[in-house]
Request: fold
Amino acid sequence: MKPLASLSDDVAAKIEGLLFDLDDTFLDHGALHEATYRALFRLREAGISAVGLTGRPSNWAEVAARLFPLAGCVAENGALGWYLTPAANGRTRLQQWDPVPPELRRDRVAKLNEIVREIARAFPALALADDGHGRVSDRAWDVGEFSTVSPEMIAEVTNFLEDRGAKVRTSSVHLHATFDGHDKATGAAAFLSARLGVDPGAVPLRWAFVGDSGNDTPCFNVFRVGVGVANLHQARLAILPRYLTKLPRGAGFVELVDRLVAARTSAC
Ligand SMILES: [Mg+2]
Reply:
């Protein structure tokens, strides 16, 4: 990883949009600070689109897309997302993007509910995440938000879920199981293609990504401007981002926004 300061003006000025993780990247231990929130408006003023890209549930993305100055928000590690479209009287209307047909979605929900019952029997100490009521495509267990779960137990649960055909993704706070195909990188590319008409193959070159943990590694793997905030768990990641901020969490997010906005402004 190279310091973010080494990102060249030439590369930074070509960035059209920023995809960003929420927990421990945009949020500081779950809280949104004023400077971090303000950075979204600075991106918009500079003509740089912003899209949230989180493992959090669909209903978090629904609120973020409704209230924040974003081009949309993708939830559940790339599975689905929300965005606004113009409506009558100068209003905007929320729209959901979900590439999985309703019948298949119902089948997958039934399989997920069965897996939740099996996990409860096999790992009684493991607690479901407290945001489960808003989840559509996955189920999540708390491995770091309010509970402490050892890496050994996370590996054991991961094997258990993978043996049942589920895909597993792990963030700094949750372990997720899903039967959907997208990860954060492919889901973001599909969303930007459907929502903004961006060529999916060009997303890793024309957009930047910032994150901190295991479920962000598909993006760290493909984004030319893939950025980790300083608190990222280096030892736990199989793939590291190309750049690293000097500051952790929300301050690191603002550091990246400063860099992108300065490069875009000086290029104009
Ligand atoms: Mg995170």
In short: The chain has a mean pLDDT of 96.
